[in-house]
Specification:
The protein is α/β, with parallel strands linked by helices. It folds into two domains: 4-161, Rossmann fold; 169-251, 3-Layer(aba) Sandwich (Rossmann fold). Helices cover 30% and strands 20% of the residues. The chain has a seven-stranded parallel sheet with strand order 3-2-1-4-5-6-7. The chain has a four-stranded parallel sheet with strand order 10-9-8-11, with helices on one face. The two termini are 37 Å apart.
């Protein structure tokens, strides 16, 4: 299908990769038709897509841990759709690289970082799979560190460094008046973000903590803040956090990866 892009995410929940995708897709408008696969069936970030876009979500059955069983239907779908490009995001979509191993569809793979299982070191099995399966693909990374990993460790020849773009004008807003010091962060409330570390560091600090974002660790983090006497505000997901960021005196990042 000309002008059709097939995007595959391990999840389309709200996260950095998905929010960036929505911003880029909204910018280009109807220039492209987008087909999106969320391998876990979660599509909360679709709310950030302009309703005027030509976007469809495909319900593709995925068997966890059954790579060979997945590859065959993935390959059939690629042949049926024949998209202008297949775009996969992060290691959780590596089965699709196997489905296109012979390169009959143009394939771009995006790597944004690592989950908690690769916090301390590269897993040898994943290194070899990336090295083997992405050798003839274009791999896009948003940081110099990831570019070094992709070229020096994974030994990939076609790596494009594309830093994330930030529209600074969005954040040119006057800070709200408030008393005392405000320390804040923006993150998905998942284990690898290690927000418990930030909350523990705030114990005894005469400041207010604002945590923007949501995720499965929110109840545990709220309970931890309460037990330590940390004045923490959990805002949940914000479609546009610019005004909240303007109220931070300090931005804190506690992520492991």
């Amino acid at each position: 299908m000309p002008n059709t892009l097939l995007h595959v995410f391990s999840t389309f929940d709200v996260g950095g990769t998905q929010v960036r995708f929505a911003a880029i897709t909204n910018h280009f408008g109807r220039r492209w038709r987008h087909l999106i696969v969320a391998m876990d069936g979660r599509t909360a970030c679709r709310a950030r897509l302009d309703p005027g876009l030509d976007v469809s979500f495909l319900d593709i059955p995925v068997l966890r841990g059954r790579t060979l069983s997945n590859v065959r239907p993935f390959r059939r779908l690629l042949r049926k759709l024949s998209p202008a490009a297949l775009i996969t995001y992060n290691f959780g979509t590596i089965d699709w690289a196997i489905a296109d191993l012979d390169g009959f569809v143009r394939h771009v793979h995006v790597e944004d970082g690592f989950g908690p299982e690769e916090r301390d070191r590269q897993l040898p099995r994943r290194v070899w799979l990336r090295r083997l399966l992405l050798q003839r693909k274009t791999v896009v990374v948003p940081s110099e560190t990831l570019r070094r990993i992709a070229t020096d460790i994974w030994r990939l020849p076609r790596v494009a460094y594309v830093p994330n773009g930030v529209d600074l004008a969005r954040f040119d807003v006057p800070p709200p008046g408030h008393a005392g010091v405000v320390i804040g962060t923006v993150a998905a409330l998942r284990a690898e973000k290690n927000l418990a570390r930030l909350i523990r560091a705030m114990a005894g600090v005469p400041a207010r903590l604002i945590i923007v974002g949501d995720g499965p660790e929110r109840p545990m983090l709220a309970a931890l803040a309460g037990s330590l006497g940390v004045a923490a505000d959990f805002t949940g997901n914000l479609a546009d956090p610019a005004a909240t960021l303007a109220g931070f005196d300090v931005f804190a990042l506690s992520s492991d990866t």
